[in-house]
Each structure stands twice: as C-alpha cells, then as structure tokens.
Design brief:
The protein folds into two domains: 155 residues, HAD superfamily/HAD-like (Rossmann fold, 3-Layer(aba) Sandwich); 63 residues, no CATH class. Helices cover 49% and strands 12% of the residues. The chain has twelve helices and eight strands. α11 links the parallel β7 and β8. α5 runs parallel beside α7.
Amino acid sequence: MSLLLELLEPVTCVMFDFDGPVCHLFAGHPAEQVADDLVSRLRTLDAEELLLTEGVNWKDPHAVVRLAGRLYPNSGLVETLEERLTAHELRAAHGAIPTTHADELIRALWAKSYKLAVTTNNSASVVESYLSTKGLLDYFTPHVHGRTKDLLRLKPDPDCLIRALESTGTAAAESLMIGDTGADCEAAHKAGIAFIGYAKNETKRVQLKSAGAERIVSSLDQVLEAVRGE
C-alpha cells in the first residue's frame, strides 16, 4: 500500500487550503501588489508602530493584516484593512487559474463520499465566488471556513480547521488537510489532522519540510491516483 493510500484509509473528510491547492488566486493580480497597497493604506492611517515592526514579510498580505490584528485588535484600522484585502481577493478571483488536477480531485473525492471543506486565510466570500464560477460550490457548501474579523486566528492558528471539524461533524483522526504553506502544516498539526503538502516548486517543498510536513506531493495527480486506488 502506498503512503498516500495508507494516509487516506481512515479519512472521511478532506480539507483544502484555497490559494494553492484549489487555484492560483493571485495569478493575474500579484499578492505583492496587494501587500504594497495595504502598506500604503496603513501610512494614511498613521499606523507608525506597525510600519516600524521588524522581521515582517511586507510582501505577504496575510502577514501585514496579521500584524495589524496583533497591534490594533478590535480596531477600525483592522476592519478597514481586512475589507481592503477582501476587495483585492475578489478582484483576483476573476483571474484565478485552477490548480492542475484540483477540479478532478474534488470531484473524485465527492464521488467517493468524502466530506469536503475549505480551510483558508482568504475570505470565505472570495472562495465561494470562485467555486461558484467553476461549478464546485455545491461540493463544499456549507463547509467553507475562511478569515474572520479576528485576524489573530489566521493560520497557523487552527481556528478554521476546528470550525471545519465542527461543521462537518468529523473527528480530527478522520480528517486530512491539503495545504501548500508552513502555516497550513502547523495548523493541521495543532488540530491533530493529517496533512499532505502540495509543493509546486522547490521553495515550497523546503518551506513545508521545515514546518514538519512528512508527505509532500509535487502534483495533485498523485493524490488523485491514491483516491482512485491506482
């Protein structure tokens, strides 16, 4: 039995991170530009303390909003920043490119009676908009769990995974997450959920291994073959 087949054996629910495993969200609207816009917005809001913080990846939109959530919790600044990020994500969704084999994998899992969920740091409304245009929303509804107003609950916090366990009525031991970042891997481990890392390049592979991912695939076709028992 292959390692992936063995991993799938006890699983009844599969959770997908969105940007990466399902689609390349920022294919036509680069995440770096989104982050730059968020930083520009912070300058207009006089968030000097945040902008002076060291060790932040200022090219990662989620890193920017996570830091804002930590330094200015429950503030109008955070609400404004999150709404701006959501607007960017909705724009990006129109040009998002499906991840190779993602649609096939989703349909194959559904055909095998797996419960499906999305567990993401993106806005749930963005995920639902994209899935709807691809005819995939019915496979996931009502189990799309995205970013909340509490930005400290972004992955690697396991909040969205725990919400998915609750909404699907699934035990952690019977669940599996497919993600492409170290934060995904950490969140899955914290929730006690098995994890498959999707690494489209060597940089992603190194990041996933550093986060403790034991099973990493370079193509979702490898997971699809395991689901089909090939």
